[in-house]
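P.,

For your records, the input lines for the assembly:
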Amino acid sequence: MKIKDIALDGVVRQNPVFRLVLGTCPTLAVTATALGGFSMGIAVTFVLVCSNVIISLLRNVIPDRVRIPAFIVIIATFVTIVKMFLECYIPSIAQLLGAFLSLIVVNCIVLGRAESFASHNPVGYSALDGLFMGLGVTGALTFMGIVREILGNGSLFGAQLWSFKITFFTTVGGSFISYGLFIALFNFLYNVIDRKMRHVHANKALSKEVQA
Amino acid sequence: MAKFVYSSSPHVKTPLTTRRIMIEVAIALLPACIVGIVYFGLVALLTLAIATLAAVLSEVVYRLCQKVPFKTILKEFDFTSVVTGLLVGMNMPANIAWYVPLLASIFAIVIVKMVFGGTGRNIVNPAIAGRVFAIISFAGLMTTYPSANVGSLSGGFISSGATPLGALYNPDLTNTLTNLDLFLGVGVPGVIGETCKAALLLGGIYLCARGIINFRWPIVYIAVTGLFTVALNGFDFNYFLPSILSGGLFLGAIFMATDYVTSPTTKLGNYIYFVLLGLLTAGMRQIKGTEMVSYCILFMNLFVPLIDKYIVKRPFGYQKPVKVKEDK
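Structure tokens returned:
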């Protein structure tokens, strides 16, 4: 049951990008293309899983007063690993993400999960939490990147679909506006589904009572 | 016993409702539209029609999505979307592809106006935002202007593309148009609504006469722009008339910068707003060598809440508390 909760929290209920509005800086900056959003999401996922595991392992060792610097050191280690890996093996993506790759260190999603989940939960759950939170981020960023790239550049993952372009969506202003619209859309759908699910649960409970 | 109606004090009803004001603005826009259609042919009418219809329809559809009954929408329809649509259309080159006015109008109404809460709650002028959206998105299409069909009075010929404003700042482009040409818009390449300054002025005078806008503000804006351009070019007064007569300055000053929603509420605030707007427009034009009126109005719109916050009207009878010096 708890795993289901963690998964639902990470991807839908507490989706870091659309529900908690955390890590907006990379969201706004790298989602001009689908590839940028996707690779950013994967990088964040990797850092989240690794840092959650290590922080969860060390949660009884780290003194409470200096926990934030300790978390940052752990997170920075993994960000450096990701950065070096990308620069060595996939330099095109390292170039695409640019400074925002290093800025994962100060990404609120990673530190937020370390603080609110990994620092007082066992290792297995922390790893799962990192994975699902990361999937939530990856899904959100990729979706935003796909829509913005199709509208703004007429292409998808670099493959040109048609020549009709609304350049506005690839600019920074378009980034803010489409982010706002996506948050609105996601929360609208979430509320609709949430209401329906509650109806279903209520009806189930009612029918059980009637049977009893 | 008769029922007593209790209500708070302003009991006088004014005939100036939002709908009435917007109809007046639409009437004031008509001369410029008609002249635009005469100059550029029926293509201009098509562009204007697409923009206006798109604006009105997107407002109606948005409100239907909000589950407002259709009757209420008709009853509350206040013609702001008609004015926005007309202004968006007037800000397009006549022979633009059909989807540009369509998208610009939808953007102006849905994203700039309705998402922020509808009429009166938008933070920037929807028509200006629609134009800027179109310029950013379709830069190539938006900046190739056809020349007006009616030729220049002085017999000079100007090819489509370079605007008189571009010629003003770029010595390589020769400008053969006289100030009178610019004023009447004959032979001037540009967007539908901005070519004929005489028609815009006529609309402006109508609005002032009907008490819709204050004549002071467009004059302040235009004069400051012209004078600052003169000052930037070494006090050469030959720049004054061409700089105020070319580009979209009249259209922006009379119909867009004076929008009630996006201009300050106090007199002093308005002076600050329009003087800054004029300085900004002249300065930006000088730096970029191209038309910047729409960007400048958009930019200054964002400062209106700030101006309104710090410049507050003194309440009647209020006196500044006198500081009493303490005796030592």
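Two observations worth noting. DSSP finds 16 helices and no strands in chain B. Residues 42-65 of chain B form the longest helix (24 residues).

Regards
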